[in-house]
Amino acid sequence: MRLGIISDTHGMLRPQVFEIFREVDHILHGGDVGRSDLLIELRALAPVTAVYGNSDGFDLRSQLPQVAEIELDGFPIVVTHGDQFGSPNPSKLHEAFPDAEIIIFGHSHRPLLELVDKTVTVMNPGGAGAPRFGIPPSVGILELEAGIPPRGRIVALR
């Protein structure tokens, strides 16, 4: 199973995302979506699991959870924006969600792919919207296959 990982779009969905995500089976959005019709555009590619972020308004907060817990291909996954932890980091997230094997978060706009305790994959795909903090926009891809650890990569957007 191939997952498209995106966060911090802030209402901007770059055309490249459609190309990068064209063969994904599911999309995980780590919050700060910006506008609800952006999720409709992503759903044209694959099913979407999304959470709201600290910049999302009441309309999105009424539609989306702060934390989503799902299982895909046998992997327990948590998706959260992470702002409820101040500055989220892999160990803080693993401590908050000890049963998750994959944790997806956003908020910092800093791409990150890290293994915690040798079994938990933590990914922040970076911000996919307008560049912030001098960090170029990016998304992530995670490949899931039963019996082996997830394989992931960060993909820069132009």
Would you kindly provide a written description of the structure presented here, covering whatever features stand out?
The chain has 158 residues and is an alpha/beta fold. It has one domain (2-156): Metallo-dependent phosphatases (Purple Acid Phosphatase, chain A, domain 2, 4-Layer Sandwich). It has 4 helices and 10 strands, in the order E-H-E-H-E-H-E-E-H-E-E-E-E-E. It has helices at residues 15-20, 36-43, 58-63, 90-96; strands spanning 2-6, 26-29, 48-50, 67-72, 75-80, 102-104, 112-116, 120-124, 138-145, 148-156. Strands 3-2-1-9-10 form a 5-stranded mixed β-sheet, with helices on one face. It is globular and about 35 Å long. The two termini are 26 Å apart. The relative contact order is 0.21. The mean pLDDT is 95.
Structure keywords:
158 residues; alpha/beta; Purple Acid Phosphatase, chain A, domain 2; 5-stranded mixed sheet; 10 strands; 34% strand; globular
Distance between the first and last residues' Cα: 26 Å
Total number of beta strands: 10
Q: Percent of residues in beta strands?
A: 25-35%
What proportion of the residues is helical, as a percent range? Answer: 10-25%
CATH architecture: 4-Layer Sandwich
How much is the radius of gyration in Å? 14 Å
The main β sheet shows up as: 5 strands, mixed
The CATH superfamily name is Metallo-dependent phosphatases
Helix and strand string, N-terminal first?
EHEHEHEEHEEEEE
Give a short overview.
The protein is an alpha/beta fold and 158 residues long. It has 4 helices and 10 strands.
